[in-house]
Amino acid sequence: MSMGLEVSHLNKNFGGIKVARDISFDLKPGDRKALIGPNGAGKTTFANLITGTLKPNSGSIRLDGVDIVKLKESKRVKAGVAKTFQITTLFKRMSVRENIRLPILERDGKSHGWFGRAERFVAVEDEIDELLGQFNLLDFAEMPVQDLAYGQQRLVEMALTLALKPRILILDEPSAGVPSSDSHIIIDAIERLPKDLSVLIIEHDMKLVFKVASRIVVLVNGAILTEGTPEEISQNQQVRDLYLGARHEH
Ligand SMILES: Nc1ncnc2c1ncn2[C@@H]1O[C@H](COP(=O)(O)OP(=O)(O)OP(=O)(O)O)[C@@H](O)[C@H]1O
Ligand SMILES: [Mg+2]
C-alpha cells in the first residue's frame, strides 16, 4: 500500500474550459512540495479537488491507498486532508484562544459527557497552549484576532487547521497579504510543522517556495509542465520563460 496522497489522471472542466488536465501527483508523509504557476493556472482548483470542495470529472484521489474521491469535504477532513481556513472565516472579534478551541471541540465531537468533563477541559486548554507555543502566539492568546498583525492572523489560520490533526496540509498562498518584511514569520511556521505531516504549498513568493519546498511542481493551463528540485526548476528554461514573461500580483 502506498502511504500519503496519490492523485491519478485528474480532470476538471468548468463548462468548456479544462482547468485540470490529466494531473498525476503524489505527496508522501513528510513531503514539502510547492505548487507554482501563473495566475489562473488552476492551482486553487487543484487544491479544491483534493479537499472535496470541487468534484473532478474523472480521475482518482487516494489517501493511504484508499480512494477518497467520492467522500464529501467534511469526511475528507476526518480522513486527514485539510486546507488552511481563510482569514475571513475566523471569528475576528473572538480571541485567538477561543478560535483555536473551536476546531478541537469539533474534531472530538460531543461524545464527552459530564463524566470526565473537568479533565477534558484541562486537556483542551493544554492542547491550545501547545499550538499557541508552536506558532509563537502565546503572547496574543487573549487578544481578539482582528487586533493582530496580518502575518500573525495567518498563523492563527494555520494553528486552527493543525488543530484538526491533518496528515495532508494544503497551504494556499500562506504569505498572501503579508508584508515581505514579515514573510520570515510564515517561513518559520512552515519549517516548524510536524515532520511527518505532508505539506503542499501553493505560493507566488519564490523566496518562500525555495526556502521551504524540497520539490516544486509547475502547473500551467491546468496541466503539470514539470516537477523537480528547486535547483532543477530554477534552471528549467520553460519555467524561466514563463516567469520572465508573466506578472504576478500576489
Ligand atoms: N467556480 C468556477 N467556475 C468557473 N471557472 C472557474 C471557477 N473557479 C475558477 N475558475 C477558472 O479556472 C481557472 C483556474 O483558476 P484557479 O483559481 O484555480 O487558478 P490559480 O492558479 O489558483 O490562480 P491564482 O494564482 O490567481 O490564485 C481560471 O481560469 C478561473 O477563472
Ligand atoms: Mg489560487
| Main sheet makeup | 6 strands, mixed
Strand content: 15-25%
* Strand count: 10
CATH class of the domain at 5-87 and 164-245: Alpha Beta
**Could you name the ranges where pLDDT drops below 50 across 5 or more consecutive residues?**
none
Q: Architecture of the domain at 5-87 and 164-245, CATH level 2?
A: 3-Layer(aba) Sandwich
Overview of this structure, please?
With 250 residues, the chain is α/β, with parallel strands linked by helices. It has a domain at 5-87 and 164-245: P-loop containing nucleotide triphosphate hydrolases (Rossmann fold), CATH 3.40.50. 36% of the residues lie in helices and 24% in strands. The chain has helices at 43-51, 73-79, 96-108, 117-134, 150-162, 183-191, 206-212, 230-235, 237-245, and strands at 5-14, 17-27, 32-36, 58-63, 66-67, 81-83, 168-172, 198-202, 215-220, 223-228. Strands 6-7-8-3-9-10 form a 6-stranded mixed sheet, sandwiched between helices. Strands 2-1-4-5 form a 4-stranded antiparallel sheet, covered by helices on one side. Helix 3 runs parallel beside helix 5. It is globular and about 55 Å long. Residues 43-44 line the site of magnesium ion (MG).
